[in-house]
Every structure is written in C-alpha cells, then in structure tokens.
Design a protein that fits this description.
mainly alpha
Length: about 90
Amino acid sequence: MQTSAGGDTYKQFKAYIESRHEFRYYFNNGLSDAMKTKFQNVFKNKADEWFAPVANGGIDPAKLTKAFGTANKTEFLSKVNNLDNPIYNFIK
C-alpha cells in the first residue's frame, strides 16, 4: 500500500469499504505491524473524505459502520490511534 493513499491500491481498498464485503490483507515475514502503521496513516489522511456527506463524496454511513464499526469520525479516529484496536483485524 502506498503511504500517500493514492494509486490503484488505495482505490482497491476504498472499493472494498464501499462494497460492504469482508476483506483481509495478508502479509508474510512479520510485516503486519508495519502495515498497520501504513493503514493508520491512510485512515488519518482520508477520514475527512470518507466521513464527509455522501453528496460531497463521502462513503455511505452504513458502509462505514460495516467496515469500521462506526460512522462517527471522532470515534473512528480514536480507534485508529490504537494499533491494537480490532479495526486493524483485517491485517493478517
């Protein structure tokens, strides 16, 4: 995943969120902790965009709740700050 949250990998990840399907990312050689940090950066950088009103390009609140357990940006960012939070359970 690109740390800039751009490119095809980011688009694929956003499509998974919007699809409401369960998703997992698998990494070998102990890279999962490093990838949690990369996803943490993406989450922080994209929170305003994702939690904006749908009419302004945001993601549907039901889809956010399915993916992250909340449609509240403040609660989401609180979860994001803890790398041990279940929000990162999709990283294996």
